[in-house]
């Protein structure tokens, strides 16, 4: 077990390193840096001015060196000009000696956002908090209902209940968030239909969550994932229901309810667990769309802002978070699968 | 106040407008129902009501895309200033009808939706085919050989899968990235896979007949490399194959994010099928690995792959919509559904129709593909 | 309670159909049988004849598309077919219990064994949890499992196949049912394990006075277990009666043909060959008019046999012996079978293939959690044998003994870890199949076990054979190869039209013939046949076996026949090699191996095989425990954990020293520490009473 975890963690670290490096490389491609120079300096810089600006701000060094600096394993760049030493790790107006040589992610320094004019770590922390609340409610809504639908549909394959629930789940998986969100807003908050039960934006939810301002975004994300999980659960449940040991249980004289609850359920839930865990990366997608659509300024919204405005440091920060979320959930799904499944646990 | 049509009138005129589509659908269904006992799995699709609905929805959009020029009522890019945000059924100044209203620039929502179908159906299936080529060509050896090759390829696939899709798109589909040549490089690699695939396919099968082999492989190489030079580098000397740069960008990104999933599916299927006795039989008579992979294993993995193919076209459609939704679509003017939804969402609470029409269109196409895939899966499992 | 006169189970004119989308499949038609208290009723027949359907019909568990379309099933006088759901539940598990084939699949993998056992009384009787668990513990002792407390707390996958099946039996007996239905309860198990289970079932049924409905395709097993017998063919009962009576005086042509197609002691491939039943089993919806067996029956008379439904008629004079044959009183039942073509035995030629000190070790990668070192599995240890041209060498042993690994090493799918394999003078043990030339490859070919799996489902039969010819570089042109392909189809007695068919349009036996044709495409000198007939029905087995023999005779091929079926091995092999846990424990001619002195394992193996012949008396030696895992073999003699002769060997020689494979007479060699004198005291296991 220890060995397994160790290897798992090693792979995770390697993946994270490679991915952040790729993001770093892509965000630091020359055209992006040029844009950065023009937006930070002034928009009408000549090419020569751009080059010198980049040179002065440490962007002219080799890619690996810069990545190392960002990571915090290489000393930050310094640049001496007109007797003033500036540098990555040197806060404006302080002396080089008062600042550490290394400043990167490992030291807890994530850089400064150019859009929000604030430290990246701060922005991400607050935004992630907001998204966390959103995700929490999504999970609360999505997981139990998806499992319930899947089990009800799968316990009697081919029954009318199954047909209805399956078609409903297929429909929700076929409806991406930007479609269901639009439809929900139109139905529940537009003047055209006129129900106006909920609000079409979730901006006010950042100050205080109410059913009115939060239900639609939560429902929009939950719907898309729900269909998928429900279908996985149904598939797993209907497979389990045809297993020999279910027949054994039936022929023991167990009632249908007992067969489902005592014999089928645990076996049927092993597969969906993995699916739910692997659903997180997709939820992230949904989060980005829904936060944009409902104007809820969480993590997803921030990511779009960072990407749209070429905010390199912020974008890097966001991708680290996203990659870590994906990797951690993958690992959790593996470990959970093992824990749930007695057959693998011991052998 | 301009004149408007009632909903009944709108719907009947809409239905009329789709006449070529109805005719084509009628023909397809009549033929398929008649020959369904002889057409194998395809025919059995018509035994399942949901399968028929799915197939019908998909074919509806396919025919709409094919006959778009006949179906649409206005130029999808033409703007009529008076028609901005007008409700469905509004009569235009020169007597036409915006059946589904006008958008914020005064363009006809209906015609844009019809043209959007052509856009979507031009890219999504093609991108899915390429993703399959890449996934299959890499998944077969990974699953069959296992070991280090598998470990390496799986690691790369997991890398791509661990990348949040949106982030990847923001990084890959920006106009700046084109100047770096990265999309072209990616395209060069990804578009080479079909050529490799078919070369291997013919060579492994026909190496015992050199003449036949040379013919097949030769034709594959000539055609493949010709198309390849045109699509990836826009360097086709005859100018038949080409792809506009923005499109290439989108296309490559979509292939790139889909391929690893296909890879994983293929790899899993191969690991299962390679334990069969007929694979051992092929080994004991000294067949090469590519023959076994391409001719013994792949044909027998086709069931799940066809199902996944249908699902994946739907997923690609959603992905393309997502791109459009974030303004990363093929081009800003493009009538593709994602971009139209994005355009329309700002005024959603006041004038919902410009967004809701393409939203429902996309929903119905993807739903159709999902129902189709589901029916295929069920029918192939039955007896 | 029931008195001795009312039957426990009485099935009358039962018909069961499955309804698929395209048609109704009448799986069981007009089936009747009666089980008296304490009686064991055997239900035999070939695959697909409806045995399981009858059993599930009694349980009323036919699935969504199955329905009882006629007749009645009375259990202690109550009609099950009209019973309500509640009443039915009271019956299942408490009054009638069922055991079926796959033991592992019958146990819930996510529930501890104890909980699964205790559940039965908890459902049916108003008793507390503690009492239920106590009962579970007691019953585990009853089924002779060691260490009941550990087993109660175990997960099913922690038990071996034999142990699992014992748990399934225990579960069935938890509530003391009066009827036990067993559907092929031992088919998935090894013969030596099977022998133990069968003994157990018989003893327990006797102890509790339980009636049994015992379903099997194995006639020998039915004779061991049952008092009465019902032979089924294509959804109908064709003959019922007392087991011994039916076995010695069969009164239905199908029963008779079935017995003539199974290799009983005394059959011989040259002098007394098996007689295969011609034709194929009819599909349930394609049954002929009149007698279902008509098209395959030697006594068929047009106008009578196909004119009306044939009723069950009294037969043979004995009470309760019936046969569904209209000519039951006319046929001369004692007439010897029309002699199938006999052949001269082929004298073996020079040595073609030889293995010496061959070893194959697998290194298992440290598993997902195997924090420790890699383990070495010794799949083959010290294999020595040689085989001559035209000779059949059988390799027998139970599952996991390394038979298939040996085949893989010979074929070059694996390379040997040590030792040599010599084919026609060339050493090939280190030559993986990719490095072998077409000549070598085509001269050493293989026939695989599972006919449903040996042919590529998406390629036509002809194309697959032609592909083999191409690869072996045989034939000068495409037309020539096509011609040869047709000749190969002739060789295996398949119609030439089959060339364009897809494998799914063929029956199991036909597929196996295609597999054989493909193996002989390059005029193979040595053919390794890995259980080539064990997945086939008995009536088809005989035909395929004979085909194999015939081609061998014609081509003077060396056949390495891998099998666990000792009946067929005795019938067709010239020499036999017995394997246990990767070791060759005995090798010799068929006569030497099948008669004393034996290796102790061979002795047990022979005694475990049920023989469907009332004239044969068999000494029963039931081995204790299961086959040790190859991952974790015992030290010393591999068989020492189960050997009943071990006490005769002085000291702890058996536990510490691996014995030599030493000659005891001629080419007969045995791997055992017993002295010649001790070996000489062994008695024959099987004796055939004089006629
Ligand atoms: N659920 C089902 N749907 C359709 N046909 C079925 C179903 N179950 C069984 N059959 C058909 O009914 C017939 C009898 O099957 P059954 O399983 O009872 O045979 P069996 O004698 O038990 O065979 P085996 O020895 O292989 O277990 C077969 O032709 C089979 O194909
Ligand atoms: S009734 Fe006729 S065909 Fe049927 S078994 Fe008897 S003799 Fe043969
Ligand atoms: S060596 Fe000992 S344990 Fe092994 S078979 Fe002979 S007597 Fe039995
Ligand atoms: Mg059966």
Description:
The complex is a heterotrimer of chains A (347), B (383) and C (691). In chain A, a hairpin with a 2-residue loop joins strand 1 and strand 2. Chain A is built from 13 helices and two strands, in the order ααααββααααααααα. Chain A is elongated. In chain A, helix 1 (2-27) runs antiparallel to helix 12, helix 5 packs antiparallel against helix 10 (256-293) and helix 11 crosses helix 12. In chain A, strands 1-2 form a two-stranded antiparallel sheet. By secondary structure, chain A is an all-alpha fold. Chain A has two domains: 2-107, no CATH class; 120-340, MetI-like (MetI-like fold). With 383 residues, chain B is mainly alpha-helical. In chain B, a hairpin with a 5-residue loop joins strand 1 and strand 2 (97-98). Chain C is of the alpha/beta class and 691 residues long. Chain C has three domains: 9-226, Rossmann fold; 350-573, Rossmann fold; 583-688, no CATH class. In chain C, 30% of the residues lie in helices and 23% in strands. In chain C, strands 6-7-8-3-9-10-12-11 form an eight-stranded mixed β-sheet, sandwiched between helices. In chain C, strands 18-19-20-15-21-22-25-24 form an eight-stranded mixed β-sheet, with helices on both faces. In chain C, a hairpin with a 4-residue loop joins strand 1 and strand 2 (24-35). In chain C, helix 5 packs across helix 7 (161-173), helix 7 packs parallel to helix 8 and helix 16 packs parallel to helix 17. Chain C starts with 8 loop residues before the first strand and ends with a strand. Classes of the chains: A mainly alpha (347), B mainly alpha (383), C alpha/beta (691). Chains in contact: A-B, A-C, B-C. The interface between A and B is large, with 53 and 47 residues. The complex binds adenosine-5'-triphosphate (ATP), iron/sulfur cluster (SF4) (2 copies) and magnesium ion.
